[in-house]
Design goal:
Elements (H helix, E strand, L loop, with lengths): L1 H9 L4 H18 L8 H14 L4 H18 L24 H9 L4 H13 L3 H4 L7 E2 L4 E4 L8 E4 L2 H14 L17 H14 L9 H13 L4 H8 L4 H4 L16 H6 L4
Antiparallel strand pairs: 1-2, 2-3
Helix pairs in contact: 2-4, 3-4, 5-9, 6-8, 6-10
């Protein structure tokens, strides 16, 4: 695994991806119960079948597992033989989970801790990924331009996004108490930032108190940011830039969950019987 980790680092993969690839590789080698170099195409196909059919994993999970195995053979074993013409599961077209504005407000109203409130405000008001908000530094908050500098986000790309006036007020209240120096939201260990799991727990607790029935993670705030901007008339190209999407196709998914156009369509049932009820 050391050589695999070295190669992943040399290729510039993120810490999160490196951890995921090593995990996938370990599970694959345990499944085939033989030396990795001796694995056949059939071994990999059996493992893919196990992940899809027996364990009922998502297609995206299985695709990442296959990518990890391919990386292992190409960059560690220097061979491509077992990988020839291996089919990938068809990509699932899933719509993101979105909260309406009333639900977002209910969640925020349940958060009393200034630090926790500032974190959730930033995720929603700026469309940040949870991994991005925990890695923010004090210097990334540009109060003059009312922008946030997101450094090395997904795909190791930098971008700027909005800094909300309300979020800034919450940040100042939090900063007056905790006085962060380097990391905007430091973790328990000295010199570390808050974990993504901690943010998810903050969000889950708030959802429970707010009696939100939807099965959502903190990432739903980012989805809601994009959807609410779209419904408010913001051009899709600007939303793409704020979210840090490489392709406009990724951002276009929010057109399928927005009620901007759908709300204007009257159901045929309402046309038939609306006046009678």
């Amino acid at each position: 695994m050391n050589e695999l980790k070295e190669q992943l680092i040399l290729k510039g993969y993120t810490h999160k991806t490196i951890k995921a690839y090593i995990g996938h590789t370990k599970r694959f080698l345990q499944f085939i119960n033989k030396k990795g170099e001796d694995a056949t195409k059939k071994d990999i196909e059996k493992y893919m079948f196990e992940l899809l059919n027996q364990q009922q994993n998502s297609h995206s999970y299985v695709n990442q597992s296959l990518s990890a195995i391919k990386f292992l053979y190409k960059h560690v074993f220097n061979k491509n033989e077992p990988l020839c013409e291996l089919p990938r599961p068809k990509k699932e077209n899933k719509l993101p989970s979105v909260l309406n504005k009333e639900e977002v407000l209910k969640i925020f109203n349940q958060v009393k801790n200034y630090k926790h409130k500032a974190i959730l405000y930033l995720v929603y008001s700026s469309g940040l990924r949870v991994g991005e908000v925990v890695r923010l530094k004090v210097e990334d908050i540009d109060t003059e331009r009312m922008m946030i500098h997101v450094k090395q986000g997904k795909g190791r790309n930098d971008r700027y996004t909005l800094l909300s006036e309300v979020a800034l007020k919450a940040l100042r209240k939090y900063a007056a108490i905790d006085k962060p120096e380097t990391w905007l939201f430091p973790g328990r260990k000295e010199g570390s930032f808050l974990t993504e799991r901690s943010v998810q727990k903050i969000f889950s607790n708030a959802c429970e108190k707010a009696k939100i029935c939807k099965n959502v993670s903190v990432h739903a705030l980012r989805h809601s940011f994009a959807t609410h901007l779209l419904e408010g008339g913001t051009d899709l190209r600007y939303i793409q830039e704020l979210l840090g999407h490489k392709s406009s196709k990724t951002t276009e998914i929010y057109t399928h969950v927005s009620n901007k156009s759908l709300s204007k369509i009257q159901s045929p049932l309402d046309r038939l019987l609306g006046s009678e009820e």
